[in-house]
Amino acid sequence: VQLQASGGGLVQAGGSLRLSCVVSGSSSRLNPMAWYRQTPGNQREWVARMAVNGFTEYANSVKGRFAISRDIAKNTVYLQMNNLEPEDTAIYYCKLQSIRSGEHWGQGTLVTVSS
Asked: Is the Cα dihedral 104, 102, 37, 68 positive or negative?
């Protein structure tokens, strides 16, 4: 199972970015998917998740601004991030939770929000 995250970059506060996570070797439809983020010196922080049935949940810090979605045909999960704040600056990781093989992580994509 491999996850390839992309879409990070530099954006001004109030701007938007869409992160992508392409899954290979497994199915984003048949496994729970999630996005996490991490800043230097801190633990990885959960941001959003999507269950197999499509149910979504968000951390309080991003609720109303971020949206997780998936394209089954492309086996890709997205994180749409709107109204970005400098506090959203982090490396963002996608994760697939497999019952058979456990957790699988993407390599991370850097998001930098300038004030």
From this structure: positive
